[in-house]
Design a protein that fits this description.
7-stranded parallel sheet; globular; about 300 residues; about 50% helix; homodimer
Chain lengths: ~300, ~300
Amino acid sequence: VENDPSATREIIAALYPHTGGGHVLGITGAPGSGKSTLVAALAAEYRRRGLSVGIVAVDPSSPYSGGAIMGDRIRMRELAGDEGVFIRSMASRGSLGGLARATADTVRVLDACGYRRILVETVGTGQAEIDIARTAHTTLVVHMPGAGDEIQTLKAGIIEIADIHVVNKADLAGADRATAALRALRDLADEPMDSSEALWCPPVLRAVATTGEGVPETVDAIEDHVAYWGLNDRARERERARAAAELEGVLRNELLRLAMEGISPERWRTTIEDVVARRIAPYHAAHELLRTFLNAQD
Amino acid sequence: VENDPSATREIIAALYPHTGGGHVLGITGAPGSGKSTLVAALAAEYRRRGLSVGIVAVDPSSPYSGGAIMGDRIRMRELAGDEGVFIRSMASRGSLGGLARATADTVRVLDACGYRRILVETVGTGQAEIDIARTAHTTLVVHMPGAGDEIQTLKAGIIEIADIHVVNKADLAGADRATAALRALRDLADEPMDSSEALWCPPVLRAVATTGEGVPETVDAIEDHVAYWGLNDRARERERARAAAELEGVLRNELLRLAMEGISPERWRTTIEDVVARRIAPYHAAHELLRTFLNAQD
């Protein structure tokens, strides 16, 4: 899947009927929040509970990645000898758009292989991270105590994708304030109770991943969400939205590829020169190319 | 342009011949680096130098609820009374992909209106930010002192789009280390001197935006880059790459729109159900839709 993109379509098609058994957990948060350490601690806790774990690290700074400079690799090595754990780093696999796609496919492979919990670690707050979060059943956002962080988080739209908040490094000053601020923001973002269906209220937990404090409680909260996911129609609705987004993405890329094949290099070059010289606006230039492509389909 | 997307094409086509006079400056960096404050300080310095300034603030809105801004732009309000400054916030204007497009169009309107320096502020390090940076003539990346931040920046691909680095909050501990690390990374990323043409070496500056320290020097560096941009073929090459990326983006979106128009809601719904039930893989399902669309063009 990673090495031969042209074979990916057939591989995933063959594996696809075997997927759906694994629960995909997205773990995201700002750089420095201690995501990697928390991921390792969660994996160890899951192993204690007898569940197999796949880890996909999309965070370029994650200690899982071969060339990474930072991070405590010791914790990872403890997991690496365990057959019930599979670790894969996606850190340097091309463009961010391609990364989201490759990550989704890798998660499918691990799912089809029977890993019961698949932890996908991403960094930051960009579109690729949000795309990756969309492919998760449960999204865990890792925070750390610090002035203004909770506001930045809200601005980046992360608060709305969180199913579970964890204030990591909860032994540092400001943990109480961060926890209280997150609870207040969560309550603001909460939807009104307009249905008889019980809604999920994202818990705000505290942890110190380096010591393991709060880790069993975090796994408990994840498992609550696993149960919630299996119970109601909202989960199904989310799966549908996920499928629709993926279909659109594939259509968009395939159509562009077909269109570009139908445009001669010479035509492409002169069009660009016309745009740069401001002889024609990009919209109109693209539309002329589009018309050529669609006429060629007749 | 913002309110009537259907009219945008004609508006931009009419304005397009009048664009090209403004210099577009992209300002990006991690959350908390003090970008907004620096943007306000740069705008004030430009006003002191007699140049008109357009400011476009891009805050990615939530892909789920449309989002709200919590940002305090108090400092911006000081500028708002000045006729030589035009401020526009792009928050909550649809998807991130749509945001990049709407931002590019808004920049064009300001350009056609005669604003000499157009500052586009984006948050974070995602693909949309990189797309927006691509539409800028000069990209300024704002850093702050802090463990590992410079490494995160490198990995996120931001270092390659930076024309100027500013270590903001340079009065904080770690500023020397961050500056030295950025200079080392910049030198690593530098292309070999294989042509007689003088290459731009991105300066690493220090500033304290809240006090104005380092702000005139930052504007000097920007103006050096404005001069560089006017001098050589690389700039032209960059304009071509920019035009190509925009043409591709328009093609991609128009083709998807056409394809979606050609697919019945019923067909779309059953396809999604088939994918969710794992009767067909997303790739293959999208391809079947694609075939239907292309056959309909015959």
